[in-house]
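Action item from last meeting closed. Structure (219 res):
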């Protein structure tokens, strides 16, 4: 469960995010849609305790992210796959994430396979990865602590159509087993087939939210 209540973030005199409220329920995928610069990353960073809000609150399972004990065991986060440690191999990066979250290290090999980074790819330096491979590794990092909530910022960026289909299947399965997914994208086609609900943000404000049918009927 994710609950966002009247979140705002001001940088200088400008509102990056203004009065944003929404909730994501267990068992659902929420598509967080908006053009570049709309305020998606800022909102997700506030939910994850990385950017302090100017106003408002965000909680995960009823608690602000920063007060969750061992958050990696509850919330899987993928915010910027391009920022991964370039000098380490994918396997090293995921092993370090597993150690940091107290997750089961024996999951590392299997999880790398699951995200499409078999032994050969996992043994390469992340600096040599394509953006799509980094997204796959980032998703493995988000999943390694066996969280019940996933918060993913533009995870489809850099994935090819087959990769997008694969990620959609994985996220659908995660939600169908009771997980909560918040998934941002600037492209409707990346999220429309997987999301149960949509939150549309533009210019830092919520433009619309609801199911596909609700949005299409304008209610
Ligand atoms: P999105 O993720 O939807 O592309 P962002 O949340 O990254 O949008 O950005 C929303 C707005 O806030 C943009 O106008 C961006 O330039 C601004 N912004 C984001 N981060 C900062 C920052 N650290 N300092 C100043 N302005 C920022
Ligand atoms: P529970 O033990 O009650 O199933 P968890 O917190 O372990 O709760 O997980 C919540 C949901 O997320 C479960 O439905 C679980 O199957 C799913 N989940 C957890 N980790 C993964 C993963 N690595 N890949 C896919 N789904 C996962």
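Sequence:
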């Amino acid at each position: 469960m994710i609950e966002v209540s009247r979140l705002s973030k001001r940088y200088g005199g400008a509102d990056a995010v203004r009065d944003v409220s929404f909730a994501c329920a267990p068992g659902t995928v929420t598509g967080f849609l908006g053009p570049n610069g709309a305020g998606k990353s800022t909102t997700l960073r506030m939910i994850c305790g990385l950017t302090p809000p100017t106003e408002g609150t965000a909680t995960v399972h009823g608690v602000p992210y920063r007060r969750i004990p061992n958050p990696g065991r509850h919330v899987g986060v993928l915010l910027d796959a391009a920022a991964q440690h370039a000098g380490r191999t994918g396997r090293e990066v995921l092993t370090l994430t597993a150690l940091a979250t107290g997750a089961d290290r024996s999951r590392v090999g299997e999880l790398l396979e699951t995200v499409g980074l078999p032994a050969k790819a996992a043994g390469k330096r992340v600096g040599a990865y394509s953006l799509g491979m980094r997204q796959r590794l980032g998703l493995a990092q988000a999943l390694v602590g066996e969280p019940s909530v996933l918060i993913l910022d533009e995870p489809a960026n850099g994935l090819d159509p087959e990769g997008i289909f694969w990620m959609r299947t994985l996220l659908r399965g995660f939600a169908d087993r009771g997980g909560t997914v918040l998934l941002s994208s600037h492209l409707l086609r990346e999220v429309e087939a997987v999301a149960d609900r949509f939150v549309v943000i533009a210019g830092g404000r919520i433009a619309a939210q609801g199911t596909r049918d609700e949005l299409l009927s304008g209610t």
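Note appended to the action item: The chain has a mean pLDDT of 95.
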